[in-house]
Structures are given as C-alpha cells and as structure tokens.
Amino acid sequence: MKNKSFFWLGICLSPIVLALLWMLQSKTEPLSVVEAPQKSLLSIDFVPAKVKETVPDKEFLFIPLNESEPTVKKKLTDFSGKPTIVHFWATWCGACVDEIPELDKFHEKYGDNFHLVVIASDETKGKAVREFYQEKKIKNLSIYVDEKSALARSLKVGALPTTVFVSAANKEQGRIVGPVEWVGEAGKLLNAQLSSTTKHN
Predict the structure, then answer these.
(1) Cβ neighbours, 10 Å, residue 45
(2) How many domains are there within the chain?
(3) CA 23 to CA 102: how far, in whole Å?
(4) To 5 degrees, how large is the angle CA 114–CA 117–CA 122?
C-alpha cells in the first residue's frame, strides 16, 4: 500500500520536476552590452591614398567676388604649409550645391586649421559660381574654377563631388567620393583626425 502511494506521488510530482528542469535549462544568460564601434575616417568613406604622391602642378583660376578685379592663376602647391582640403564640385551637380553651404559653415568653424580650396567645374568664367554664392549667401569660401577640368583629370577625379585631402607637404593623403556631412559628425572627425595625420606628411 505504501509503495503504491509513493508511485502515485511520483506520478504527480513528475510534471513539476520536469517543469523545474526545463526552466533551469532554458534560462538564458543576460544580454551583453556591445560598445558602439569607434568612428574613424574609414567609416565616412575616406579612401587613403595607396601612394602618397605630390599633387600635380596644373593651374586653376582664383576669381575675386568683385568682377572688376582680375582673375589669378593658382596651383595647389601655393597652399603648402598647412593641410589642404580640395573640394571639386559644380553648380549643375545637385548633390554638390546642397553641400556648399555646409562647407561654408565648416570653413567658418575650422578654417584656421586648413586651407579649404573649393574648385568648381565651370565654363562661365566663374559667373555661375559667383551668382550661386550670392544667392546662398556664401561668405567664407573663395571662388576657384577648373575651366577645362585639367586639375581634376590630373588627380583622377571621376565624379562630383570629390574631396581630396592634401598634407602640408603637398602630398595626397586620401579622398572621399560623394557628399560629406560637413556640419555633423563627419566634419568633427575630419577636423580632428586630418589635422593630426596630414600636417607632417
């Protein structure tokens, strides 16, 4: 009789024991916290130069805002001594025109750290660029024009916008093809990292 009681007690307790075992086995470990990866130049599509070559000496034009003043021929080597950001764009490029006001703010904020040379592909001798600057109230960017795209071709620029980063010693450090968030995280990152990586190379 006693054995039969233990038998039925075992039958009744079995589901409870099994449930407890299942709960213990299926208990999951708490989720670990994964730190966000640290942003780097690569995370904003910066492509380092495979060979840090000296930039070509092709001429382009500096066009004063005042139409009565003469244009001046320039070369990228004229800007040695500080890192130079060379930005290629055009007034007929939709992504480019959205970017210029941001570049203007970027230059206003960080302009002491770099030369910022914003070069337009333009066949109007700067007239279209001057009108665009006036319309958008661009205050901090000078007008540079690569009339026949000689400089762009010599730097193997195949799309607009393209930004080429040049060291104080006139050697290309890398480039970004496409628009950049100049007034956001990318701008802060470029200012911080490029100022430390390009000034001596």
Answers:
(1) 13
(2) 1
(3) 57
(4) 170
